[in-house]
């Protein structure tokens, strides 16, 4: 059965012949998916990732003079070539897995992503990346608005948030997204056994079916209860997945492993949200090693495991991962051997269909250079982050990005597909 | 769906953690005004709750070896839950929870910085148990209804905060912005009321507000438990130039903290904190947070409430007690349409569930993983902004965690519930009525009531005794605590 489901998902509705034999959710997915199935995994690095130490401009003398205790030594970076402006670049030494993907041509590094007047507030900046609107950090999110374009009724598992709280990016007017941080506890428990337990589940389902007219907040909580009960069995399918590679034993990698399970088992989710924190490195961040090295290690190892696993399953070409953070960090290190909140960052896009390579140009870090701002304190953005979203929406998810982003950001978008 | 009367129940859900059987005796004959006074003027009640840990008629704590809530974070979590369940001062614990969210500080960073035991100590040490300053949560308890300006000073000098927002490395050569930013953006006036240069100036104001370790302090797991870190003003690390803000610092309207000598520079921070505390936007911001905490999350704040609450705050020189008294006796709070108009925090949900369903033989350690799955671990807010509140608590995963906790709790109380209900078990209707007098969801529409009756009817011929009662009473507790209606306070 698992194989049939996967084929069904991969080949799309056009080849489905078993019609009524398919569980009802599959036909709903088929409707929603149209003729193709493409997965998008969004990885958020919480806290403001220090882009200058992720992708190092290792021949820039100012990089070393301004970061005397946290610079990654030139001899240790994993070289990835030279960008269009002639800056020699290297990945952080703990990103070996990503460098392999880069060498396969399947990792795009989009330098200096951001927007004008970058916010230095974690919350506002995260919300801006969520709404895709630098003028407003409240309201619905870009992925939520994407989900709103899918045919109704929307499958309750169309998107899967692996964190406990719903990020702004997934907020929408019409499409609820389940949060399933730990799929193995996503089960229905009862104080009783046997028929009494089954009767309890039926009663819980009946209580949650109450439309609660006139009490929209109660109706909302009831809808989450219903969503939970309706999705239990499919989530169990994802958790029973045995990966083809060993994932590191940390929360980030385990979330990616669950995402791989959902994709391979074909339970119907297309958009996944994964996040990992600790990037607010104000103090003692380290250079090639230390705290930041560990962050890079878990990021790179987790992504590489996921990429390899999905590829082994023959689904690499159906899966794109985008990695972003709410801002980059200041160019000069601070007095605590860390870095404070900055401006432009680096976005990464990887997957079997991605056109890899270096996109955009690095800033020249010497004070006074026009690629800097705020008295040379920050990297000035070059690529609007919304143009990356636009490319993903238009060319990967196959929808019109303009209404979702409330504007046309196709111009200047990096050619990541 | 009421234990005492709707007004008192509402008050105790908001200014406390619901009504336990003990409370019912205390509050049964009290007027709402007397109940507010009882809660707000809590110094009249003994603070004896910690001494009752381990008593057999109380909820249990479980630990690997010795229960050490001053230096072990999981034990500290259990101690706090125990306090919420059994305190005679519920509003004090409720406000401590409010401040914990407002000044959200996470254990994980402290543990990495200073070791697990010192990290727990910085958050939860009860003064006098070991050497060294009291933990941050004890500060919030001490200032629960105290003076907000004074609380800000204490927080700015709190060792946990100095680690959490990196104040310990704020020096004149390299001013550290983290605390300077958050005291403005999150602790007081809020986004939209300051400019970026204010953050840089605030960072310089707090240069030299650092930490020092006691002589025996070592940054590892095997140091003396009596070792500690404490606030120190490092005069030679204070940056002495003028600091100018976009808002007034002094009552004469001056926006500049004039240059002081290094030795006098501590006063810079005091001046800034006072200015932030009495800033009208701080008053309004706290009023909005109190609206959401005490009055409603589903009605937007009434501007008249914000105005009057902010005025009480400013007229009382940032004292919180008159503010909370004002709120709890205000027409907004007592308006019946505000009953159940707030989403329950996971901590509130767990504590109220235990208080209402029962705790016999139940260990608080069993709430640990469920609370994490619900999205709220004490001493581990997701970031300095605190927990995303309101509807943000709810998703399919967190809702399942809540209902599954209801199942765990109900299973643990099965025999006790059954035994306590024998006289109410004459009919399914009588059983449901009694359960609804103990476990208090928001009013149930007829459809969910029908679902509950069908659940009881599925038991077959009603005998009302033995296994049937145990099973169905526990099932009802599970369904009621796990209902959407119960997720509101």
Structure in a nutshell:
With 417 residues, chain A is α/β, with parallel strands linked by helices. Chain A has helices at 2-11, 24-33, 51-54, 61-66, 96-103, 122-131, 142-148, 194-208, 216-239, 251-265, 290-312, 385-396, 401-405; strands at 39-45, 55-57, 78-82, 88-91, 107-114, 159-161, 271-276, 319-325, 345-351, 357-359, 372-373, 378-379, 383-384.
Give the count of helical stretches of chain A. Answer: 13
Within the largest sheet of chain B, what's the order of strands?
1-2
Q: Roughly how much helix do the residues of chain A carry, as a percent range?
A: 25-40%
Shape estimate of chain A: globular
Low-confidence stretches of chain B: none
Query: Order of helices and strands of chain A, N to C?
Result: HHEHEHEEHEHHEHHHEHEEEEEEHH
What's the helix-strand series of chain B? HHHHHHHHHHHHEEEEHHHHHHHHHHHH
Radius of gyration of chain B: 24 Å
C-alpha end-to-end distance of chain A: 33 Å
Strand proportion of chain B = under 5%
Structural class of chain A: alpha/beta
Number of strands of chain A: 13
What does the average pLDDT of chain A come to? 88
Distance between the termini of chain B: 12 Å
Radius of gyration of chain A, in Å, reads 22 Å
